[in-house]
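Notes from hallway chat w/ T.B., transcribed later so I don't forget. T.B. wanted the structure written out for a chain they're using in a teaching module, and asked if we could keep both sequence and structure tokens in one place. Agreed to drop them here.
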Amino acid sequence: LMFCFMLFWKQLALLMSERLLSGENGMIVDLIGYTDKLSGRPGDTINFKVSSQIDAPVEAKLLRSICADANPAGMGIVETNCDDIFPPQQFNAGNQPFQSGSYAKTISPLQHHAQNSIQISVTVFPTLFTAGTQTILSIGEVRLDLDASGLVTLTSHQDKVSSKTPLRLHKWHQITATMNASGEVSIHILHLASVNANTETVSNQLANALVHMHIDGFVCLAATLDTKGPGQFFNGKIEAPLIMADGIAIADWNLAVDMTSLTIPSALAQPDNKHALILFNAPTRAVCGSQWDASELNWQHKPDHYAAIHFHDDDIYDFGWDTSFSFTIPDDMSSGIYVMRITCNGHEDAMPFFVCPPKGVRRAKLCVLVSTFTYAIYGNHARPDYVPAWQERIKEWGAYPHNPAAYPQYGLSTYNNHSDGSGICHASHKRPLFNLRPGYITFGAADCSGLRHFQADSHLIAWLHNQNIDYDIITDDEIDRDGFAAIEGYDAVTTGTHPEYHTTNTLDALTAYRDKGGALIYLGGNGFYWRIIRHKEDPNLLEIRRAEDGLRAWASQPGEYYNAFDGSYGGLWRRNGRPPQKLVGIGFTAQGIFEGMPYKRVCNDSAFDWVFDGIDDSPIGDFGFSGNGAAGFELDRVDTKLDEGQDITILAQSYDTRDTFMLVPEEQLTHLTNLSGGSESEAKRADMVYFKTPSGGQVFSVGSITFCGSLPWNNFDNNVSRLLRNVIDRFTG
């Protein structure tokens, strides 16, 4: 039953994604913005980029975020005034446009006058036919296009010639277009996927041959350029673009060169490399090309097999808006979560950012690690179950009104698909992220708060304020850049509810902190799961390859498991030899619907009574604002085959007694067996654990993504709250 449910969900997600990306629901938000960075330290400047459709000044006001859960049954949204740090100000903000669609463009125009002939050749792998024209390659007034039916058209100065046979989707085709001084124009197509390598040639005679012998313009792959900018974006892979004049190459690119860069040098020797291609909106590299034959799966070993780039008409990762106003973090500003709220004539937006302490300074014993990489990877996740009826609850609660499902043109998440059905593998926060807003509701039909990520993590922040526990904020960005030094010296470091996505640097830093005697607290589920890469030229651009295993919204194509950004193997950290069990003693095992269950204490050793001090009632956490229970949605458990041999004590457990959870794919072997070696019901559980490292480090893990949702219950007076207080006091006392 669960398998059928998940299969249905996957198909629904794909259909919904296709419908959303078609633009049927496209709308523009009247007032919206984003920040150029998600976090900073004193002295750093946060730039706010705002677009307004309203002809009136916009007011900006700074507040500190305590709770981002709009549910009136709890605290509601709680924010404190920061006028003393940033006096409210007004500014003018006009409409700032943005353009989706990836393409490549030369740094300088290509200018050449041929005597006898001009020839353009390119190999293509179309992945989607659209209602409009898609441009494969353009140079000024010369274009190779793909029409709605898949026919190839060469357009030169208003003259056209078209093929008779449409290209086939998801097949390779070599296109050669020739213009001769005699006035003859032809298109030759070699269908590479055909058993007999079928060819087609069409030609036409033009009246004014001389004008076609002159090339003057930027060379553009996957789009055409006009006075309004790029347009007519191509969906598919492009390989081996070559332009020749009188039999001599005048422009040539090997798209496998400098794979980790956003610039592709010309294959021809040129001063200043003026015909290098610049990539816009981050098309996907390290994809299988026309020569790929499965003899090599790593693009670094046979780059000629990966000499293609996959372009999409909905790629969009940096809006590039102008800065509307800025805020420099003062030296004495408390570390925490802040929100810049902007308002204009009844319209409102809220842009969160995270303030860290000065580098090398510790203002509290406890450090909260904010998972900004995970926030960005999920940024603008358009869930397939969204329906407009959710707006009734949103309005009643005063929650954040906009949902990415209704605004696909703002760019979707790596949990969605491109318009051609391929998975979105790049993410960035350089655009408005609707689900990174106070009051955003992920599960609008849930009988609880229905929160994930930033909003769910605010349950922990609200609890810290309620308990008068001082804390510093450090985000993924600081720990990735600064390593262990970013968290060195804290008595304890705690995660939030879902620290899922990590780089090598963040895992190394957390491991070093633990092994040098630090106390690591893991308060979530499905953590430390996927490997991601930051781009060396734009660290805000993230890459994810969903290889082989894992609970996935989509799967990377065979041969495309290695990251383009650095050549490392993608996918699960477990498949890279670093399962989460090695770091925190437990790892992702099962997922269910958004519901929670209580824990039961299973360790009665008096040596661990400190964990349960003051807790006389059982069960633990049969309540909560996330799934109505402390152990829910995504569960982690102990697996001695995957940990480092630590002496792990299981303190409490919660089992899937309702049989609504499923094992994650990497745990399953057949319909009867799984890697645990036991029954499936035995494996579907959350383990709350504790262990020490030989150096004196300590780890406490709860094994559930909904744990923190129980903290605010009954005005924070409950056994989950007491249990966490015991742990924090022990680690920071």
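Follow-up for T.B.: Residues 27 and 682 are 48 Å apart (CA to CA). Might be a good example for the class.
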